[in-house]
Amino acid sequence: MRRTLLALSVLCPLVGAGLAVADPAPPGTSTAGTLTVRAITGREPIPVNRAEITLTRCGESKVVSTLTSGADGRATAALPDGCYEAKVITVPGGCALADVEPVRLQVAAGTEVGTEFRFRCA
């Protein structure tokens, strides 16, 4: 019963949800690589919709892109080569972030890098 309630509390907001949204790469830069984040909960895992994640260059505070997880829990951005920090800024209702530390990722030309953010949802 508890597992069913957890699944419903996470999956209900997914009904009618759109695709993941990402801001384009900054103007005047070439898109060299792809960065993908995945928001999930549970052991199975179940996707978490509408988690907002900011991307900044390592050591800088200016946000270069804001991602919103879609119905599949994923969000993707095309970015120039470099080091980026991904940080969750908005946690969907009924959920808590398991680890609040930002994640560092290295983007390189023609490659895709990714990370997962785990949530605990009621």
From TrEMBL:
Keyword Signal: yes
The keyword Signal appears for this protein: yes
InterPro entries reported for this sequence: Ig-like_fold
Gene3D superfamilies listed in its UniProt record: Immunoglobulins
UniProt entry keywords in alphabetical sequence: Signal
Signal peptide: 1-22
Protein's recorded name: Prealbumin-like fold domain-containing protein
Naturally occurring in which organism (per UniProt): Nocardia rhizosphaerihabitans
